[in-house]
């Protein structure tokens, strides 16, 4: 909060609470004192615009509502300069809703009431125009409040669903090496939880495959990928995917004894990348001809 220190903010909040509390009490007292025996569900403002006490009550609630709307709009506009992303979008939606409220409700109601004071009939502004316009404003405000809360999780689950699908080639390649079976997700499990479960199973399989990694396959595949015009980053991912495919082939064979890979012979693609690194490996496993050659044993057969 850049409008002042927290103590000032607390004082402003307390003052606003007191003022609004007094306003509510005044509205209740005025309504109790007024002669308002006839129930008016749609046109209370204009019907009682000239009734003592009811007139003052109507003015008070319109002024209070308008002041609250203005203060809220100012706060939203100030915070829009401080935040980004869905929160800023939500604040913009709230401001749009408040504009509908001020123009379609406050202005229409006040105009209809003042017209009654002056002996004119503009009741349609209060009874016909104001309700649908303020309803639209309420929809915008509701969307503004919900968007920052619901959009980030929705984006997370959508991306998780896409990553889950893209990791399928990797899981199909290494699932035979997993020491624990992959638990099938429940029907109610969200995509992000499904993705985490799949990643745990994949990492378990990769750990089991590590002793079977052949650095010779990695080096030959790296040179081949660079020769084909791949960037160093792409070539490294392809090389490690080829090494992984060869290790999975080696484990699946009857004489698949561990090679005793050194500590340096590991999947550096995954360092610090998490899901992104796994997705990159999965993509190359499914589409790279260099990896296809390693899967068939062509690269390992070239060892001299």
What this model shows, in words?
This protein is mainly alpha-helical. It has helices at 6-33, 44-47, 54-80, 85-117, 123-166, 168-174, 191-209, 215-227, 232-252, 275-287, 289-295, 298-301. The protein has two domains: 6-156, no CATH class; 174-301, no CATH class. The longest helix is centred in the middle third of the chain and has 44 residues, at 123-166.
Topology, pairings included?
Elements lengths: L5 H28 L10 H4 L6 H27 L4 H33 L5 H44 L1 H7 L16 H19 L5 H13 L4 H21 L22 H13 L1 H7 L2 H4 L3
Overview in brief:
72% of the residues lie in helices and 0% in strands. With 304 residues, the protein is mainly alpha-helical.
Q: Key terms for this structure?
A:
304 residues; mainly alpha; 12 helices
How many domains make up the 3D coordinates?
2
- Summing up helix and strand content along with how strands pair, one would put the structural category as mainly alpha
Oligomeric composition of the shown chains: single chain
pLDDT below 50 for ≥5 consecutive residues: which ranges? none
Shape: rod-shaped
């Amino acid at each position: 909060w850049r409008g002042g220190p927290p103590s000032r903010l607390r004082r402003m909040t307390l003052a606003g609470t007191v003022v609004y509390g007094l306003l509510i009490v005044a509205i209740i007292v005025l309504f109790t004192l007024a002669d308002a025996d006839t129930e008016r569900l749609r046109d209370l403002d204009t019907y009682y615009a000239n009734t003592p006490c009811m007139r003052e009550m109507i003015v008070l609630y319109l002024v209070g509502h308008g002041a609250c709307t203005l203060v809220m709009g100012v706060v939203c506009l100030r915070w829009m300069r401080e935040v980004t992303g869905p929160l800023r979008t939500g604040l913009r939606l709230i401001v749009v809703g408040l504009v509908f409220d001020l123009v379609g409700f406050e202005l229409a109601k006040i105009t209809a009431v003042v017209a009654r004071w002056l002996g004119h009939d503009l009741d349609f502004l209060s009874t016909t125009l104001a309700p649908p316009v303020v309803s639209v404003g309420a929809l915008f405000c509701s969307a503004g409040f919900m968007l920052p809360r619901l959009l980030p999780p929705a984006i997370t689950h959508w991306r998780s669903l896409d990553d889950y699908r893209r990791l399928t080639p990797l899981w199909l390649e290494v699932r035979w090496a997993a020491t624990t079976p992959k638990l099938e997700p429940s029907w109610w499990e969200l995509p992000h939880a499904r993705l985490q479960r799949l990643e745990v199973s994949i990492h378990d399989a990769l750990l089991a495959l590590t002793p079977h990694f052949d650095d010779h396959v990695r080096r030959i595949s790296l040179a081949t990928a660079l020769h084909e015009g791949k960037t160093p980053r792409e070539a490294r991912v392809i090389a490690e995917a080829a090494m992984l495919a060869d290790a999975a082939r080696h484990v699946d064979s009857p004489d698949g004894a561990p090679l005793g890979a050194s500590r340096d012979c590991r999947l550096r693609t995954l360092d610090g990348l998490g899901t992104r690194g796994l997705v990159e490996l999965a993509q190359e496993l499914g589409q790279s001809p260099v990896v296809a050659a390693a899967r068939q044993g062509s690269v390992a057969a070239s060892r001299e």
